[in-house]
Amino acid sequence: MTGRIVVIGVGNPLRGDDGVGPAVVEALRGRVPDDIALAVSDGEPGRMLELWRGADIAVVVEALLLHPARPGELHTLTAAEVAGRARGTASTHALGLGECLALAEALDLLPRKVIVHAVEVADVELGTGLSEPVRSALPELIERTATSVRRAGEENHQRRTSGGAPLP
């Protein structure tokens, strides 16, 4: 593995709360080390696969539609948990993150570790700006994402200094 870490904010700022992923990425600029790749994606699987190609760790920030919804509620999930929740949740995109992760696994393009930070959303209709519940959750979502990036960097450093041996 390369040790490369990528943060992908999934969403569209022109669709209300769906802009939360890009908002987190923008907030991280200048706050994470320069070697961390920061990217925004509309969630299309081919583009997602390209963004995390060669990455050891991918941190994905996504809007999450649940029924019933609890707008502003934060979730931190692994790739396996996203796949397990795919039936009970819906992405704001045509193909959800669960399908994208399954495709990446089938094509052997899945990073060693995927961390998903998601926030339940209220409004993904056309229009700019986040709803009040999502806007209120944004500082904590940014902090959780930054913490994941910091831990991923520490984990990669430990892997390199231990000769690539798996960590306990």
Describe this structure in words.
The protein is 38% helix and 19% strand. The chain is of the alpha/beta class. It has a single domain, classed as HybD-like (Rossmann fold). The protein has a five-stranded mixed β-sheet, sandwiched between helices. Helix 1 (20-28) packs across helix 5, helix 2 crosses helix 4 and helix 3 crosses helix 4 (97-106).
What's the tally of helices?
Answer: 5
* Oligomeric composition of the shown chains: single chain
- Summing up helix and strand content along with how strands pair, one would put the structural category as alpha/beta
| Structural Rg | 15 Å
How much of the sequence lies in strands comes to 15-25%
The CATH superfamily is known as HybD-like
Whole-number mean pLDDT: 87
**Head-to-tail CA distance between termini:** 18 Å
List keywords for this structure.
Rossmann fold, protease, hydrolase, alpha/beta, enzyme activator activity, 5 helices
What's the arrangement of secondary structure elements?
Layout: E1 5-10, H1 20-28, E2 37-41, H2 45-51, E3 57-64, E4 74-78, H3 79-85, H4 97-106, E5 113-120, H5 132-161
Parallel strand pairs: 1-2, 1-3, 3-5
Antiparallel strand pairs: 4-5
Helix pairs in contact: 1-5, 2-4, 3-4
